Amino acid sequence: MNEQVVESTEETGTRSARSRRKQQNREPEEKRGRPRWLSELLDWARTLGIAFVIVLLVHLFVFNLSTVDGHSMEPTLEDKQWLFVNKIGYLIGEPERGDVVILEDPMDSEGKAEYLVKRIIGVPGDTVEIRSGRMYLNGEQLVESYTDVDIEDVDYGPQKVGEGTYFVMGDNRHLGASKDSRTFGPVSSTLIKGKAQFVIWPITHMNKL
C-alpha cells in the first residue's frame, strides 16, 4: 500500500514537471510567433515615449529656449535673438537684482499667455525711484552699466516693492521703449518663469548674460 502511494506521488510530480516544461516552452514560442517588425515597432514606440516624457519634464522644470521679440532690452538684447532660459534655478532659489528674466505679461487679458523679457531692478523690501532720468534704489543712485542713455520717461515713485513681488524694467531707457513695472507695477514671483542666462543665437552674439 505504501509503495503505491510513493509511486503515485512520483507520477504526479513527473506530470507537474512536464506541465511546467511545456508552459515554459510555450512562452518563447509565443514570442517567436510575434512578427519581428512588430517587436521592433513596439521597442521604438517605447523608446520614443520615454524620450518624450523626459523632454517634456526638462522643458517644464529645467530649461527652455526663448526668442526676443522687440527692442525693449536693447542694447543688451536684440530682436530675434535666442535665449537659454534656466527654469530650475527659481524652483530652488529666488530672483536677484540684475537678473534678466522671462515673465508672463501681467497686463494680458485675453487668456493667451504672452511673455516679456525684463531685468529685475528691485526685490522685496526695496524702494525704487526714478528722478531726473536716473534710477535710485533705497535712496542711492543705481549705476546701470547695461544701459546707454538716461531714462527719458517721466519721474516715478518712490515705490516700495512688496513681499513676493519684483520691480522689472527693460534696458532700453528711451521714451516709451519698454512696457514694464512703471506701467503695470511690481510683478508677482509666480509670473517669473525663468532666468535668461545665455544668448545662443546668432552665434556671433553668443554670450553669458
UniProtKB/TrEMBL annotation:
It catalyses: Cleavage of hydrophobic, N-terminal signal or leader sequences from secreted and periplasmic proteins. The keyword Secreted does not apply. Its main location: membrane. GO terms for molecular function: serine-type endopeptidase activity; signal peptidase activity. GO terms for cellular component: plasma membrane. CDD domains: S26_SPase_I. This is Signal peptidase I. The gene is lepB.
